[in-house]
Amino acid sequence: MHHVASTMAWMHGLNRANSPAASQAETCGYCRLVHLEVSGRYRATARTQPMGLLKAVAWFVLQLFKPGSGERESDRSTPNLSLIFPEQGGKIYVPIELDGRPGRTVFHAAHRNPRATIFWHMDGEYLGETTELHDREARPGPGAHTLTLVDDTGEELVRTFTCLSEK
Q: Which pTM does this prediction carry?
């Protein structure tokens, strides 16, 4: 299912960055947000391509059944990785410490597999990794940010948020 010509999926052609319709496509029970490499022909992750070259698009995924199992293929796409904080499109405020240094925020994630490793990236820069307790401190500057989490199986979660300045 890594190639657009797959019999299980076809691309809506909605580029999330360029089309408000892409965010509406996520409400469809058959649509999944996937990341493609720059040509738009193959799926990719932050582990295989630089963040700035990934294109987020909505794919229509058919509800196919595996022969003899009764299990739908799309059931396997239930996310194992979730981000508790920050919320998608959320606004956070990180105060200045008493000594004048920039403060920190703590991002919170969860994974179905208690032994999973999560690799954290903010704005394309590697922040580190967590296992078991998935809390990660960061000092985002004022403005819009993109937080990307990738687990050790390649599952990826992308979240945008805005950090407000004290002004």
A: 0.55
Which of 29, 61, 76 represents a domain boundary (last residue)?
A: 76
**Chain segment 39-61, per-residue pLDDT in tens:** 888 778 777 778 778 887 777 66
Same domain, 72 and 107: no
Exposure of 35 by Cβ count < 10 A (0-12 exposed, 13-18 middle, 19+ buried)?
buried
Percent helix, percent strand, percent coil in the chain, to nearest 5: 10, 45, 45
CATH code at position 129:
2.60.40.10
Query: What domain range includes position 46?
Result: 9-76
DSSP E strands, the chain: 9-15, 31-36, 55-61, 81-85, 90-93, 105-111, 117-122, 125-131, 135-138, 143-151, 156-164
For residues 119 and 90, state if they share a domain: yes
Spatial distance between the Cα atoms of 47 and 35, rounded to a whole number of angstroms: 12
